[in-house]
Sequence to fold (285 residues):
Amino acid sequence: MVNITATRNEIQDMLTAQAKRYGYSLDEVRAMARSGTLTEPELRDLWLIWGDVPLAYVQRS
Amino acid sequence: MNTGHPLSRTFAAELEAFLAAALPRPLELAVVEGDDGIRVGGAWDAGARKFLPLPLDETATSLLLRVEFKLADDPSGDFFRVLNSTFGLLIPVEKGGKAKDPVPLVRVEFERGQVPPAHIHFHTSSQTLGWVYGRAGGAYRRAEDLHFPIGSQRFRPTIEEFLLFLDQERLFRGWCTDTDWRAQARRRMAQYERRQAIAMVAHYPDDIAGELRRLGWTVASPSD
Fold:
């Protein structure tokens, strides 16, 4: 087992770098998570484990 | 810094031992301690500082298993709980002779407090689904964007069940042959179900007391 510690800032830096790979800022990813429009699988999985707000599941009409 | 409940480290160690018994290659899970909980995941990418999916075997075209959990103490502080988890199967991709990011085939997500809390994203293209969306009106949605509900917050699929699914449907055949990983999986699933059943008692004490009485038990309320 590998044991690592990570501060919130380090996690945010990682999320920022990963968001950038998909052409987004961290704020844009956060907004998509809040509004239920974060559909990019890799970013969804990352946000599920590392994100600072819940993913929202929006009922579409 | 959240030090994490000791049981969460036991959870990680037991998960690592189970996966090591099932997969035909050495593996080492990573435990990341953060301010808001503990994350457990596959191989650790020190450069990107994130988890990587685990190759199922040693081949260059191995399927990849994503298995990641976010854990935190429960409100009582006596136990830990899984806040969120994601596991699934990914496929290696090559373009122009170079390895690209793997693409998912199926993702099993759990997010506490959401509706539905446990759901599957299945990556496929479906003319039938396109017809359904066309008939219903509105924009087309990709199949993988749908949240197929698969259980409740308490009773949801586990990584053990997912590995047994891969085995039963012959999506992977290179499992360890010198361990009893299938029996371990079933044992761990039974333990999980018992733990969840016990956790339900505090939420539905009157219903559970009533059912115990129906079965012949003598149950007294603390207020009696």
